[in-house]
Write a structure and sequence with these properties.
Blueprint: H1 6-17, H2 32-50, H3 59-72, H4 77-89, H5 91-116, H6 122-127, E1 132-134, E2 141-145, E3 152-158, E4 168-176, E5 187-195, E6 200-207, E7 211-218, E8 223-231, E9 240-251
Antiparallel strand pairs: 1-9, 2-9, 3-8, 4-7, 4-9, 5-6, 5-8
Helix pairs in contact: 1-4, 2-3, 2-5
Length: about 250
């Protein structure tokens, strides 16, 4: 994970060159809470790009991802650069932010590893019980890139003792795109459920705009699992979409 912390290094360099001034935070500087969330999303995108470093070796492709992250947080490049300089001059605050960033990224990695090994975690315990709960068991942040073969993301959650006949499922998410413009073709979202007789119920939606959206599925009978996917068309035009704040709410009707 330390490979992703380029910005931390920049901050340390700035701090070593400029003594801490201890001034009040200017209005144009991103506040600590927003900066923390922004840095987390930047590190996640860096991890994604390192997974396909050949394609993202070109700076314009890296910049398009960074621009999309900044736009989602309502931050310009100038504001981000100015904020980095200010935090570099106030290194104590920057260190406090980065401690929280590292802790949150490490916690998410630990949860993902636990899920891969089928272990029960606190997150599973929370999402597997209750009349109205979020049962999403993956990362709440997905990048769909039509030019790298990563144009589809799937999920599957097995039924357990807390599922009920006739449960309703709502997949909610927020879509963002580089420059705020959707690609020529829509994002296709599917939520499905397989019952104990292996019959499949599904709801499908095509989305042509950025922002918040959702797909709802009402089921009947006892279920084996709930599943689905997010898909963008890889051809003919290059496209990239990001989905974040993903939740899958199960409601006992």
């Amino acid at each position: 994970m330390h490979r992703f912390f380029h910005i931390a290094v920049i901050g340390m360099v700035l701090a070593s060159a400029i003594a801490s001034c201890g001034k009040r935070m200017p209005d144009e500087v991103i506040d600590e809470g927003k900066m923390e969330n922004l840095l987390i999303d930047i590190h996640k995108s860096e991890a994604f790009m390192e997974g396909d470093f050949q394609y993202y070796s070109e700076n314009n492709r890296k910049d398009s991802v960074k621009d999309a992250i900044l736009a989602r947080h309502g931050v310009t490049r100038a504001e981000f650069d100015t904020s980095l300089v200010w935090y570099g001059m106030n290194i104590e605050k920057y260190i406090e932010i980065y401690k929280k960033v590292i802790e949150r990224l490490q916690e998410e990695d630990n949860r993902t590893i636990a899920l891969m090994h089928g272990e029960k975690t606190e997150v599973n315990a929370i999402t597997r019980s209750g009349d109205t709960v979020n049962i999403w068991n993956g990362k709440p942040y997905i990048i769909l890139d039509g030019n790298t073969g990563s144009n589809v993301a799937t999920f599957s959650i097995s039924s357990d003792d807390n599922f009920r006949d006739g449960d309703r499922f709502i997949l909610k998410f927020r879509l963002t795109a580089p420059g705020g413009k959707m690609p020529l073709y829509p994002v296709r979202i599917t939520v499905a459920a397989k019952d104990v007789n292996d019959s499949v119920m599904f709801a499908e939606k095509e989305i042509r705009k950025t922002g918040w959206d959702s797909v709802s599925l009402a089921t009947t009978g006892a279920l084996r699992k709930v599943m689905g996917n997010m898909l963008i068309t890889p051809e003919p035009e290059w496209s990239m979409i990001q989905a974040d704040s993903i939740t899958l709410t199960r409601i006992h009707m």
